[in-house]
Amino acid sequence: MSKEIINKEEGSVALFGDDLQQGFENMTQEDMALPYVRILGQLSAQVNEGDGKYIDGAKPGMIFNNVTNEIFDGKKGIKVIPCYYKKDYPEKSDKGGDMIATTVAVHLPNSPIIQTGKREGPKIRLPNGNYLEETAYYYVLMETKAGGMTPALITMKSSQLSVSKNWNSMMKTIQIPDGKGGYAIPPMHGVVYNLSSAIQKNDKGSWYGWSITQDRIMGQEDKSLYLQSKEFNSSVAKGDVQTKADVEEKSKDSTPY
After folding, report:
1. Angle, vertex CA 39, rays to CA 35 and CA 41, nearest 5
2. Using CA atoms, how far apart are residues 244 and 188, in angstroms rounded to an integer?
3. Whole-prediction pTM value?
4. 225 burial class (0-12, 13-18, 19+ CB within 10 angstroms)?
C-alpha cells in the first residue's frame, strides 16, 4: 500500500472521529444485498463488449462480484473465509425456451421428492417436467479491492460439486493442537483459503472452475477478523441473512457440464 493511500486513510479516520459507522443504526443484514461471487465464462455478459453488462477489462476465468461489479484476477485468486455451509435442491422449470431457468421451489436434502426424480447428467428430472439441481452454498467473507473483507455467497453445482466435496473434506481434516496433548478441528470461520480459477474439462467440453487451497489458520493477530467471521456465521445461522433461494442465471452463464 502506498504512503499516499495510507495517509488518505489516516486522514479520513481523523476527520470522521467518533462518527464512524453512524447512520447505519437501523440497517441490518436483511436490508442489504448479499453479493454473489462467481467465475466469468466465455459467454458471460461481463466479457462481451456488445452487452450492456460488459465490464472493461473482464475476461473469462476472472472472479466477479455482482454487487460491487469488482473483478479479480482468476489465476491469483481471492482470499475467502467460509462462515456457513448448506446444501439444497432448487426445483427449476426450463420450459419456455428463453434460456432462463426459473426456481419454483427449494427442497431440503431429506425431501422425499428427490427420490421421485430420474438422474439426467447433473440434473434430477421430476415427473412434473421440472428438474432439481443439487447446490452447495458457502456464505463467506471475501476480500475487496480496498483490502477489507465483505460478506458474499458462493454456490457450487453440477461439475463443481466435486470441488465442493473436496473443500469440505479439506476443512474437516485441518487440525490444531488443543493444548491438552491432542488435536482439534478449528471452526470453519477460523481458516482463510485462496480461491482461484482453473480450466477444467471432461469428455463433453471445458470450462473455468474453482481451485481451492488453504491460505492460513487464523491466529491472535487476526482477532478482529475472526470476530467478524464469527458474527457473520451467527447471522446466517439465525436466518438474519436473506438471499434468493438461488441466483437465477441464464443457462449460457452457468457451468455447462
Report:
1. 130
2. 23
3. 0.83
4. middle
Contact 77, 196 (CB under 8 A): yes
Pairing of β 176-177 and β 37-39: unpaired
Pick from 62, 60, 63: which is nearest to 48 by CA?
Answer: 60
pLDDT of residue 9: 52
- Give the Cα separation of 12 and 187 in Å (integer): 35
Per-residue b or e along 85-104, where b marks 16 or more CB atoms closer than 10 Å to that residue's CB: beebbbbbeeeeeeeebebe
Residue with cell 479520513: 12
3-state secondary structure of 69: coil
Helix ranges, 89-239 (H): 161-173, 223-237
Helix (H, G, I), strand (E, B) or coil at 221: helix
User: What pLDDT score was predicted for residue 86?
Assistant: 96
Contact (CB, 8 A) for 249 and 133: no
Residue-wise pLDDT tens digits, 103-117: 899 999 999 999 999
Residue 8 pLDDT class (50, 70, 90 cuts): very low
Residue bearing cell 452457468: 254
Helix (H) or strand (E) holding 183: strand 183-184
